[in-house]
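A.,

Following up on our hallway conversation. Structure tokens first:
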């Protein structure tokens, strides 16, 4: 990439545009002043993430109050401080409220944040890779493949553990990986990975896997079938802390792998040929992003079911807010996705309490109209890839 610097004015402008990540399309540069203003400064990066992190913390504390039994804000904060101070006696003094908050609501809230952050990060990566703002794990069939793997495990009763690892997440990840392998194999028959072929293959595979999931659901016993349908609509249940810690480590590593691709994804917004001329190994980046996204999606689907629209809407909303430089867009979308799913899950479990609405229904009802609004307010802005 360094050899391209300084050769011509056009090359210099192209490299500046790549470093800012000015959009999914090759950006139009009108003078160096505009480009320099769009540069990502360390101060803007830190300020944006600090604001989003503070907002996420505030929303999480607010969400902890709501449920079948309402816990006041002051009491919730006191319980959290007692828990952080490892004062078991202090926590027990709050009675059932302490148990509900620490054993049910807090782990579920943390799970919601991690799932939302992961789905948003995968959405950012896939949209950048395919240069299409409609790309997400569901469109490409990754989620339906993971759901099929989990569905087969449930049908066969594979709910135990394999070498101390739960079989259900392993089967879901295997299903997501199978989906990627099939799509990848179809696209690779061209000798490389054409974007439009990846999208088309993903859509077709999504339809096939969704039909197989519905078939599996239809032959289950009625009670298990109802649970399967609820899970497919997106459901979060409070995990224990050791399982939550393992999942957090796994998702953190996967998101970090995607984040490391941010400079290459910035250059890919200029087009594959331009990115190659600037030193990007395009096919290697595609493989890394595609397979990492599959493994992350499989892990998420196994614990939350199929939660839609986060991987599509959140990256686009943050791109409008923070710009399209993936060095900022990745962490900003992760924080915003976690914040959004925490709020959506709180609505899902309190709106009709004590009954619970699948959180996937809430995200669809919130994300669908928002995305329609984006389509109507930015005519042509989402088209073309």
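Then the amino acids I'd put at each of the 385 positions:
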């Amino acid at each position: 990439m360094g050899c391209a610097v300084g050769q011509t004015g056009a090359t210099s402008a192209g490299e500046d545009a790549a470093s800012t990540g000015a959009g999914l399309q090759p950006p139009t540069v009108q003078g160096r002043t505009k480009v320099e203003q769009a540069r990502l400064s360390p101060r803007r990066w830190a300020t944006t993430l600090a604001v989003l992190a503070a907002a996420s913390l505030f929303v999480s504390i607010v969400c902890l109050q709501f449920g079948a039994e309402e816990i006041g804000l002051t009491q919730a904060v006191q319980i959290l401080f007692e828990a952080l101070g490892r004062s078991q006696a202090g926590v027990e003094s709050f009675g059932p409220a302490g148990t509900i908050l620490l054993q049910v609501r807090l782990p579920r809230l943390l799970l919601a944040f991690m799932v939302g952050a992961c789905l948003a990060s995968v959405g950012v990566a896939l949209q950048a890779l395919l240069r299409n703002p409609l790309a997400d794990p569901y469109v490409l069939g990754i989620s339906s493949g993971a759901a099929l793997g989990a569905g087969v495990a449930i049908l066969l009763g594979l709910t135990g553990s394999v070498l101390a690892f739960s079989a259900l997440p392993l089967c879901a990840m295997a299903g997501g990986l199978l989906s990627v392998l099939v799509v990848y194999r179809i696209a690779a028959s061209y000798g490389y990975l054409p974007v439009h072929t990846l999208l088309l293959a993903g859509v077709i595979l999504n339809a096939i896997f969704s039909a197989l999931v519905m078939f599996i659901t239809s032959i289950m016993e009625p009670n298990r079938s109802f649970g399967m349908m609820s899970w497919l609509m997106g459901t979060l249940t409070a995990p224990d802390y050791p399982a939550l810690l393992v999942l957090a480590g796994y998702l953190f590593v996967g998101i970090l792998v995607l984040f490391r691709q941010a400079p290459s994804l910035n250059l890919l917004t200029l087009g594959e040929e331009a990115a190659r001329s600037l030193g990007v190994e395009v096919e290697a980046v595609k493989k890394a992003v595609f397979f990492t996204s599959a493994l992350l999606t499989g892990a998420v689907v196994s614990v939350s079911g199929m939660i839609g629209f986060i991987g599509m809407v959140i990256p686009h909303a943050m791109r409008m807010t923070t710009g399209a430089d993936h060095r900022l867009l990745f962490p900003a979308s992760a924080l915003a996705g976690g914040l959004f799913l925490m709020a959506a899950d709180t609505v899902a479990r309190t709106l009709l309490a004590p009954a619970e609405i699948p959180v996937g229904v809430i995200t669809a009802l919130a994300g669908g109209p928002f995305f329609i609004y984006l389509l109507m307010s930015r005519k042509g802005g989402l088209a073309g890839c």
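The beta strands are 161-162, 165-166. Curious whether your intuition agrees with the design.

B.
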